[in-house]
Amino acid sequence: MWQAIRRWFDPSDLRAVGRTPDYRFSLANERTFLAWLRTGLALVGGGLAVAQFLPPLPLRHLRETIAIVLLLVGGAVAVRAVDHWARTERAIRQDEELPASRFPAVLALVVGLGALLLVVAVLAGALGQR
Length: 130
Known about the structure:
- The chain is an all-alpha fold.
- The chain has one domain.
- It contains 5 helices and no strands.
- The longest helix is centred in the middle third of the chain and has 32 residues.
């Protein structure tokens, strides 16, 4: 595991593998990485916004739980983005099949489930105020 993390920070190690690919593939891989990074930053920003601006919710500590989950998922997306970038770049340089990932599906399910739980919390709050 530590060797994989070290590879993220050592571009010479990555360039020593395989052969130099067409730069368009490397740039496309980098754009995908940046898109994932923006997603992670948006989740972190959402977590901070929830913690600072969302009024207290009817369920105890729900606001804090939502904020912490968003912050943790945002951090996980950022870490996963750099790992996927490095594995994809290595595969491109070695002319191998690109690495498969279940992470987009897992992230979509987590976001969808989180949205559903928030709908339930909003409805519970609205019904509780009547």
